[in-house]
Amino acid sequence: MRISRFPSLTEAQFFGCTSAFVDSLSGELNAASIALRRLEGKSKGSAFAYEMTFDTHRYGALIVIDRWSALVSAFGPHLELSRHRAIVSSAPERIRAAETILGCANLLVDAADAYSRAIVEACALAFQYLNTTFAEERAEADQSAKLGPMLPEDYTSARRIFLEDLAAR
Length: 169
Description:
Blueprint: H1 11-39, H2 48-75, H3 86-89, H4 91-111, H5 117-133, H6 135-145, H7 153-167
Helix pairs in contact: 1-2, 1-5, 1-6, 1-7, 2-4, 4-5
């Protein structure tokens, strides 16, 4: 990740990365849910394109969480945040919870012979719950977004770099 090569991050840069993280995670989870809903009622292997799309996004969510974990581990101990300090202090617990939730959903899907309604609903619920796991990060991103074009360049450039890092996976 290019962003991890920075010697340090400012608060604005960190919050730019936070915004990119929650938006990317939400996007991956929503895309996984849509692909899984298309698979509902089908047996495994009967809709290969949708299965590949689903796999891309469910594992993409894990990659997004892993990149967030790396960023928080590298910069979190050195950040001086004026607001939303729990984003850093609670990150390890939130990341573990997210990995557990996704791991369980993946095991459920992988162990099934078909994409039953119960499996699809259970995974969709898990994905929705996962979004709430990072509620404080979402609140910060939403708060910053209200500034729109008045956001500092540090924020927008760090957000862009983090998104480019994710796209390069």
